[in-house]
Sequence to fold (177 residues):
Amino acid sequence: MTFREKVQRKLCWLWWRFNRERAHGPFRISATGVQPKHLMLVLPPEFHDFDIARLLIDPILDRTQPRAATIVLRENFRTWLSPDLRAKVVTFDIAKQNWLGLPTNGICEKAQDVGADVVIDLTPTFTPYTAAISSASRAPLRITVDNQFESGFYNFFIRGETERPLAERYDMLLKYV
Fold:
């Protein structure tokens, strides 16, 4: 990670913490339960990552068996999802962001209104936009597959070797859910 990326992460975390959210503590199994009531999946905003991540939607839903599910993705990726998807879909416009890359278009309020108790952000590298959506949900359990520790937004990390293909890192995630 470059110095610039480290500074951007820290600035995003500070801005988010002081202007939007308070840091959430670690999750408790008793609070989330073994089966989520409402699972929210945040899909990557980059198409090459999204194309791999979208294949995980059904396996994750099959394994977790949530009572309700919501998929959060870019507006222009919606047509790539299966019409038989058994989840609500919420879209965002990645162009509507501030100078730090954090959302400015009301998507955070939509994420909070979902009422998810588990959020899985499938974005493989830190993206302020999707990190903010995950954190704004206020879910007790917020999972990321990013390889860098970012506790300002998430509280459960699936770390994998970044040299491995993204599909292998997602397979590792499936072993944990």
Notes: The chain has seven helices and six strands. The mean pLDDT is 82. The CA atoms of residues 23 and 151 lie 8 Å apart.
